UniProtKB/TrEMBL annotation:
Residues 12-397 form the Major facilitator superfamily (MFS) profile domain. This is MFS transporter. InterPro entries: MFS (IPR011701), MFS_dom (IPR020846), MFS_trans_sf (IPR036259). The chain crosses the membrane at residues 9-29, 49-69, 81-100, 106-124, 136-156, 162-185, 211-232, 252-274, 306-322, 343-365, 371-389. The keyword Transmembrane helix applies. Keywords: Membrane, Transmembrane, Transmembrane helix. GO terms for cellular component: plasma membrane. One of its GO terms (molecular function) is transmembrane transporter activity.
Length: 398
């Protein structure tokens, strides 16, 4: 152990698993990166383009629910499960190359999301075997890697010039490499979780612990805000730039959105540090308070100087995801140890279900009332999350 109580090799283990997660989840973002080209190839509507993203999330939810019911994440070694999931995701993503129309493509995106449910939760569980003292920081780095991957399609769109077939091939290969890296270069840490037995009832009983339930409710509030912000910030920024007469607004909006989402990778790290030092509840309450304030205020800034809009966006992007890993960390610490994988998987599944209504409703509000009130509805999530985490803080003095 080092002076902080971390075992030898833990930071190497973190680097390997974080890289494997970043690589393994690359196919989540592959179609998003080339939507403009796919719109021309298949003559798809904006609604169909949105379904290329939504299908991945629905597939992830279906895969995660199935995994939770079957206790897969507690019965199969997590790094091996990552390999299985990454292999399936890479294959279904590559099949986009021979898809004849958008309906087939949407179905393939759903299958890709289903396989990715066997990559993300096991990665969090595998990483938790390496850390007890600074587990929040470690899982923060993991989610930070995923956040950086989420931002990358916007940079690709902003820079332009890549053929969609090349993007699909490369992302499939990178996802497969992530699974291979996890299984053959990664190692389990010195704090393994007991292996669970098959018990479908545990898919719901994991929430019988009040601490797990409160941490999960906090996560659900966080997810109500996060993905809708990521999905629609580029449109908001593009509209704002156009409103103020900025040329090439779409290109600059894509690059700006890359920065706004990408800075969240640093936020995840800081959120982990704060979670380890202050407690999960205090850290998440701070993050949700700041992000919720940004959600309420940013829509009223469309006529403000562009640097002000971008600055508020960067603050929002930093804090909106800073708390994400801390909810999962709390589950690994508070939940029944032989079913941690099931609890994490179910938490993620329900959280991703909650992203769908907000992704759907934001453009409707924006079209009806303008951006002043569209993002404000997202603040309801952080508000509910703060209430849950305050209760958890009182219960566990966290």
């Amino acid at each position: 152990m080092d002076q902080a109580g971390d075992p030898p090799g833990c930071w190497t283990g973190l680097a390997v698993l974080a890289t494997a997660l970043l690589f393994g989840m690359t196919t989540w973002f592959s179609a998003t990166a080339v939507v403009p080209q796919l719109e021309a190839v298949w003559a798809i509507t904006p609604a169909q383009a949105a379904w290329l993203t939504i299908a991945v999330q629905l597939g992830f939810v279906a895969g995660a629910l199935g995994s939770a019911i079957l206790n897969v994440a507690d019965r199969v070694p997590p790094r091996r499960l990552m390999l299985y999931g990454a292999t399936g995701a890479a294959a279904t993503n590559a099949l986009l190359l021979v898809a004849q129309d958008v309906s087939v493509a949407i179905a393939l995106r759903g299958l890709t999301g289903m396989f990715l449910a066997a990559v993300y939760p096991p990665a969090m569980k595998a990483m938790s075997t390496w850390f007890r003292v600074r587990r929040g920081t470690a899982l923060g780095v993991m989610v930070g890697a995923l956040t950086l991957g989420s931002a990358t399609p916007h940079l690709v769109n902003g820079l332009g010039g890549l053929q969609w077939q090349l993007v699909i091939v490369v992302t499939s290969l990178v996802t497969l490499a992530g699974g291979l890296l996890a299984e053959f270069a990664g190692r389990d840490g010195p704090f393994p979780f007991p292996r669970g037995r098959f018990d479908p009832r545990m898919a719901w009983r994991v929430f019988s612990d009040r601490g797990v339930r409160l941490a999960s409710l906090g996560y659900f509030g966080h997810m109500w805000e996060l993905y809708a912000m990521w999905a629609w910030f580029s449109v908001f920024l593009g509209d704002t730039l156009s409103l103020q007469g900025i040329s090439a607004a779409g290109r600059w909006a894509a690059i700006g959105t890359f920065a706004v989402i990408g800075i969240g990778a640093v936020g995840c790290w800081l959120g982990g540090v704060l979670g380890d030092r202050l407690g999960r509840a205090r850290a998440t309450i701070l993050a949700m308070g700041i992000s919720g304030t940004c959600a309420v205020s940013i829509g009223f800034l469309q006529t403000a100087p562009i640097p002000v809009v971008v600055a508020v966006g960067l603050v929002w992007g930093f804090w909106v995801v800073a708390d994400s890993a801390q909810f999962s960390t709390a589950v690994t610490e508070l939940g029944r140890q032989d079913y941690v994988g099931t609890a994490l998987t179910l938490q993620l599944a329900i959280g991703f279900i909650l992203t769908i209504p907000t992704i759907w409703i934001i453009p409707l509000i924006a079209e009806s009332t303008g951006w002043r009130f569209a993002f404000a509805v997202l603040a309801l999530g952080p508000l509910a999350g703060i209430i849950s985490m305050r209760q958890l803080r009182c219960r566990h003095a966290g």
